[in-house]
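User: I'm putting together notes for a lab meeting next week and I want to include a structural view of one of the chains we've been expressing. I don't have a solved structure, so I'd like a prediction I can at least talk through. The sequence is below, exactly as it appears in our construct file.
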Amino acid sequence: MDRERWERAQQLFHAAVERAPDARDEFLRDACGADEELHASVLALLSADAATAPVDRPLAELAGAVLRAAPAGLPAVAFGPYRALRVLGEGGMGVVYLARRDDLGSVAAIKVLRDAWLSPARRDRFRLEQRTLAQLGHPAIAQLHDADTLADGTPWFAMEYVDGEPLTDYCRVHATSLEGRLELFRSVCAAVQHAHSHAVIHRDLKPSNILVARDGAVKLLDFGIAKQLADLDAPVDQTRTGLRLMTPAYAAPEQIRGEPVGIRSDVYSLGVILYELLVGRTPFELSGKTPAEAASTVAAREPERPSLAAQRTGDGDAAAPRARSAGRVAWRDLDVLCLTAMHEDPARRYQTVEALMRDLAHTLASEPLEARPDSAGYRVAKFVRRNRGLVVAAALASLLLIALVSFYTVRLAGARSAELAEARRAQRVQRFMLDLFSGGDEAAGPASDLRVVTLVERGVQEAQSLDAEPAAQAELYDTLGGISRKLGELPRAETLLVRALRARRARLGADHPDVIESLVALGLLRSDQARYEEAEALVREALALERRGVPGDHPALVAARTALGHVLVERGAYADAVRVLEQATAQREASGAGTPELAETLKELGDAHFYLGHWAEAQALRERTLAIQRAIYGERHPRVASSLVDLGAIHFEQGRYPEAERFHREALEQMRAYYGDAHYETAAALTRLGQALIYQERYDEAEPLMREALAIHERVFGAEHPRVASPLNEIGSLALMRGRWDEAEAAFRRMVAIYRKAYPEGHYLIGIAVSNVGSVYMRSERHALGEPYFREALAIFLATLPPDHTNVGIARIKLGRTLLRQKRWAEAAAETLAGHDILAKQQEPSVSWLVSARKDLAEAYGALGDRERAARFAEASAAPSAAE
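Assistant: Thanks for the context. Below is the predicted structure for the 884-residue chain, given as structure tokens.
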């Protein structure tokens, strides 16, 4: 088959595949006429497509209205808890229904793969779309709700139903301003960046796949042809039927040509979408063209600058007049931003969506862009390639032009501004980070077994080769050191962060904001290493730069205040931490609500109030933190999990152990999924869950969790780190509950030694460990030996905590119990009553400490002859839920 007939067959195939199955045959007979060979060729393509193509009918096109084909009837069966209400649309291979869940009153879009068109390959791709949606949790991505199969094996899944309009339609109908369009576009970019961070390439970005709901929220839909980065190097289908799995007007040139695609292909599509938002049309008219014709058009023509195209569009779209009012400077930046994203050469596009978003933010803030327009030299070279014959005929003129361009390019390169140097540094870092994943091969994706630890090791080797670029090298050392710290690789983190600090001081001097960042990063590492004095000194050194000219509201200084608050919390200086963190919170709130930085500061402030026993304040702050994090990261993210742990701890401290268990189980599931089984964050969640189980007397469930957590903490932090003491505390408590006195005492004495070494100036944690040793003597009926431990613990608590803190109340009740068993009735009654009154204001009446205190008070007052009080507390202990 010659090229002309092949392209005709392709045209007919693309037209036929968009029709319902029962309408295809009539269409092909009319289109092919008496050309049986052409008819057979198209049928062969359709047959190959039916065997291998995914269910790719765009849900965005189906979510608002019924397609032109006659809709299918409503199914007689239910989709799990969902009942179909009406057909949203159908294609040749699938149907989408609007469905209601009667038990919750919610609606969803149900996507079904019909039996008549099933094949193993299609079923696999349908399930791949489900898995893709399941792993993407972002506010601007329609969420997967449920998935299952019908009794006959038909697969279906339920996803968020979006009652909205396609992006460009919404902007046209609502006459959205230029700024409004850019903000909507930024939300789209954030959703795509989230997908890329999970190694998912969308591959079919276009306005009809982006709906804007009535409240103005953006929702990205239809991951039916999305691809995992690790799969992008698969060979291209030789039938070329895969070419239809994109929309040519928005597809990158390499995608139209059937070449491997990647992150930068989605960047190109985003550039086209932005172009259409600005101009009211796409840069190229490709409708009706074959893939070869489309590729030729894109390769042969430069897209017109959006600023000029908007003027030509006139009143065809409401964007143009308002866009022109933005001014020439803004349009110049929009031209650069748009054309960089849409560059024909993938290597010259924005390398990541994040880079595109940065320049979008620069545009909105009237700041210099990181991207630069194509140089004159590049444009001349491109002209030469496309017009080689004309160039030969005009060789002398061309050589002169190239010489002039080269001369001025060199002159301009010698006079680069500091801003341009900074932008190139950022681009160098981007390229470096991409190379970590590709191993230097731009077409390759990450291996399926590629681990973060491997990437960091590779990154350190690469960073060491950047001696000629000290700014980029220092930034990479800082970034890789921070990643190593999060991974619990503290020695490596120390090496890298110290290198970054030295390099920045040597290159920038002591007063630069980058030096502040390095001081803070190293200070936080020292806190992780339990070297608290060094940690505080480093962070305070960073804050001292405010007195040497750095503005007090500079983001680096605000981050330093948050870090200081964290260190003060770790040292036990909670009241000082509250003062510092309240200032940092006010500064971050002034910079914008709902940011990750604000959530970070609110979390630290919540921790300070928690350790002060201010439960209401701590709970409000932690709930606010969780709300911000869920809005930013979705439901399943380690920071969300950390906030769940924090909220569970508040329930635990107030005696609501089942509620605490629920929070900790959810957090542990997320930590395991994100970090794996051997990470210290997973161990912390294990410890909290085990603690909640112990207080519900479920010892057999709790013990293996505690021992697993202890092993992880010892491996990561060493045997004498304060974090090791946390699972030790629960292991000792388990041994105590089971009467294994020697084991319990050994665990608690080890805790005392760890805390005394870590906090030589005193800390309430020392009091907890000392009190626990006393508990061993109390439970083993050696009360005289336990009394001095309780008195020491009480003195530590009163020196480090508010007088009405929970730990003070528990220590008084323990001391009272020891005195009671020694028949020192009056002393016992006084201490026990003081502890009881503290806890009664903060905890549920059924908490074991309060029940025990009431029994002890009844016994003590009975021995003292105070029958009225004895009877009152005896009655209360028998019915602990009754009000006092």
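A couple of points you could mention at the meeting. The longest helix spans residues 418-438. The chain has 39 helices and ten strands.

User: Perfect, that's what I needed.
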